[in-house]
Amino acid sequence: MRFYEFESRKIVELAGIPVTEYGFCKTADEAKAAAERIGGPVVVKSQVLTGGRMKAGGVKFADSPEEAAALAEEILQLEINGHIPRGVLVDPKAQVKQEYYAGVVWDGTAKRPLMLFSDMGGIDIEEVAEKHPDHVGRGHVSNLLPISDYEAKKVIAATGVTGSQLNRATPVLARLARLFRDNDMTLAEINPLAELEDGSFVALDAHMEMEDEAKGRQKRLLEGELSIEPEDTREPYEPSEFERSVKAIDSADHRGVIQGKDHGFEGNLGLVIGAGGGSLTLTDAVRSQGGKPANYSEIGGNPSVAKACGLAKEVLGKEGVEKIAVMMSIVSNTRVDIVARGVIKACLELDKDPAETIAIFRIPGAWEEEGFKILDKYGVEYCDRSVSMWEAAGRAVAKIQGAEA
Amino acid sequence: MSILLDKDFTFIVQGITGREAVNLTRECLDYGSNVVGGVTPGRKGREVHGVPVFDTVEQAVENHGSPVDGSVVTVPPAFTKDAVFEALEAGMKLIVIVTERIPRGDVAEMVELADSKGARIIGPNCLGLIVPEVCKMGGIGGPAKDAAKAYAPGSVGVMSRSGGMTTEISSSLTAAGLGVSTAISIGGDAIIGSTYAELMPFFEADEQTKAIVIYTEPGGRMEAQLSEWVSENDSRLPIVAFMAGKFMDDEEMKGMSFGHAGTIVEGAEDTATQKIARLEAAGIAVVERIDEIPAAVAERIGG
Predict the structure, then answer these.
(1) Quick check: B303 pLDDT over 60?
(2) Dist CA B121 CA B114 (whole Å)
(3) Which of A82, A298, A357, B194 has the fewest CB atoms within 10 Å, counting from its CB?
């Protein structure tokens, strides 16, 4: 889950990292009031969950509260990469002596959080790491032991930073690492971390992402401190009607799991497929053989007839879908007969002939004999494990292309 | 021979009274595995298919009378870390975590504690591992009669990020007469207890294993790590890889996760195309089609 800049600012502040006086505003009037409170020149920044704000005109400078209000008015209506801003952030135009970078990310290979620090802040850290590797310090922290300040100090000192700068930056990086661990973040970045003219260090911009699986136990931060509604899931795109319907069918019954996605798919072959890895393999197999999937789906666990039927009906209800392919890798938990019953029921309820509508049924495994008997009865083409997932997908593609010709 | 398990291997099931765990216990017993106890707090005194249930891991070990080798953990995500810590504290050396949707911070804590105790974790979000006709630890392959159909003893080590695909691939190796030495469902999360590269030395040391098959997906650095391992170690084992999820390379799929929690493309480095290139550069054969695996393995074992 991604956070807006104003939320990241608050998270950093809660962790005891100094920030400048700032205001999150939803109207021009609020922006004016914030600028008055801050005093002096300010910067008005669009609050969107996408990059390239500066280029798009979503970050502008104002010398007076009136100007800040006018700019806020403009930025609040400016769509950036299809995103409408949540509001604007009003910040003082800080007198920066030097910009640094402080970040913490997961190192999946070491299975530990990795602290990163650079004395070349304000630009993309990957670029710095590539062009100036000696300006990036790194250090892992334990998942279990308390994080000590000296661990952060070592990382910063490795970039050559010393003097009062080292002593000011050390607690910032150490606190960022603790925040990362305590709040189940997958990314915690302060860029730039600024040294101001008076020698103090402040987080000028922060970027935080939290692990979705941990949202439940981070309620106090999410709902308490940040007032984020539980419905505010921040998917990378708006769920489609198909996606919402499949989700509703899944939630209505605790047995088994079904998922459906159609973002980025617009073909004519509906896919009723599973499980996790099987769905990925089958979607590739259909596309590699010239097929055009109308959707992606996943059947997992042991769903009821109603659930399998519900998924098949939603897929068949999508515009342009002529046939469905019902396929899975060998199943041990999912029952073949139940899925067979579900997809046939879906066809019948939509007044379609299962033999015509189901291009292929390839689910080998538990209860397959019973399943195949049902499919025989309705004349649906099926196969067992001797027919590979690739071949089954190919048969489905050939059938739908034959129907087109 | 085999890796990690043998016919004398003993284990318990934590969360044994849960619906799925009851089935898993039945399957493992039918397959001939030594399930010596189960734990569900507050359910001491019950039995699950003849396996005694206890409140604590310590009680289960005490009842067995000698050290227990491992544990299958199938408790809800919020309680998994505690359960795994308890098992590690009781001296278990191999822990299979079936549970999915565990925050990765918890997984990282469990792995760090396991490392400090010389123990190994498989998973989370996995189906466990199987040595054909010897022992199965977890739901892998399903009921004993289904597992027998897909898994015959043989020469190929299988590691897969997908539980279902572990069985699909093993079944095709069995049908081709190659068979399986040990098959491991390593789990589909971003951080897991044992990666391909971390398991390779075990297969390397196993005489029965003549080749390795891996099933892999976009997301993460696990394949890069394997490529590095292969380049740095003069391995005797040819590796055949299959990469699923190539469609995720499309621009509109960026940032979306499919299949497993770890299967999400976050940078340019972890796309299917990049991974295939890296694996091939390390001399690993990447097959285009799932049904090309057995022939690719046979060719490499033969030559």
Answers:
(1) no
(2) 7
(3) A82
CB < 8 Å from B in window 91-120 of A? 106, 108-109, 111-113
Token duo for residue A266: 């617009």
Whole-number pLDDT of residue A404: 67
- Calculate mean pLDDT across residues B139-167: 96
Check: CB of residue A283 under 8 Å from CB of residue A271: yes
Q: pTM of the entire structure?
A: 0.94
Q: Are B255 and B264 in contact (CB under 8 A)?
A: yes
Antiparallel, parallel or unpaired: β B285-287 and B239-243? parallel
Q: What's CA A277's distance to the chain center, in Å? A: 19
For residue A95 the two structure tokens come to: 């007198």
Is residue A192 helix, strand or coil?
A: strand
Q: Are A5 and A205 in contact (CB under 8 A)?
A: yes
Q: How would DSSP label each residue in B51-82?
A: EEEESSHHHHHHHHSS---EEEE-S-HHHHHH
Q: What residues does A233 pair with on adjacent strands?
A: none
Tabulate helix, strand, coil % of chain A (nearest 5): 40, 25, 35
**CA gap B166, A386 in Å, rounded:** 16
Class for the domain spanning B10-302: alpha beta
Helix (H, G, I), strand (E, B) or coil at B192: coil
Helix axes A305-317, A336-349, angle to 10 degrees: 50
Distance of alpha carbon A316 from alpha carbon A239, whole angstroms: 18
The DSSP call for residue A225 is: I
pLDDT computed for residue A181 by the predictor: 98
Taking 60 as the threshold, does the pLDDT of residue B16 lie above it?
Answer: yes
- Go through B219-235 and write b for each residue having 16 or more CB atoms within 10 A of its CB, e for each that does not: bbbbbbbbbebbeeeeb
For chain A, list the domains and their CATH numbers: 1-20+95-234 (3.30.470.20), 21-93 (3.30.1490.20), 241-404 (3.40.50.261)
Residue B195 with chain A: CB contacts under 8 Å: 109
Q: How far is CA A307 from the centre of its chain?
A: 26
User: Above pLDDT 70, what percent of chain B?
Assistant: 99
Contact B102 A329 (CB under 8 A): no
Report the complex ipTM.
0.95
Residue type, A273: I
DSSP A281-300: HHHHHHHHTT--BS-EEEEE
Instruction: Report how far residue A260's alpha carbon sits from residue A243's, in angstroms, rounded to the nearest whole number.
Output: 6
Domain boundaries, chain B: 10-302
Active site residue B64: no
CA angle, B112 as apex, B109 and B113 as ends, to 5°?
Answer: 90
Please state, in angstroms and rounded to a whole number, the distance separating the CA atoms of residues A113 and A110: 8
Q: Which amino acid is at B300?
A: R
DSSP assignment letter at A207:
E
Residues of A in contact with B146 (CB under 8 A): 332, 365-366
Place of tokens 């008015």: A73
Strands of A19-170, DSSP E: 23-25, 42-46, 59-62, 88-92, 96-107, 112-118, 136-140
- Any CB–CB contact under 8 A between A296 and chain B? yes
In whole angstroms, give the CA distance from residue B38 to residue B52.
6
Residue range B189-235, pLDDT digits in tens: 999 999 999 999 999 999 999 999 999 999 989 999 999 999 999 99
Contacts of A281 in chain B (CB under 8 A): 165, 242, 244, 290
Low-confidence ranges of chain A (pLDDT < 50): none
Report which of B278, B272, B253, B265 is spatially closest to residue B219, judged by C-alpha positions.
B265
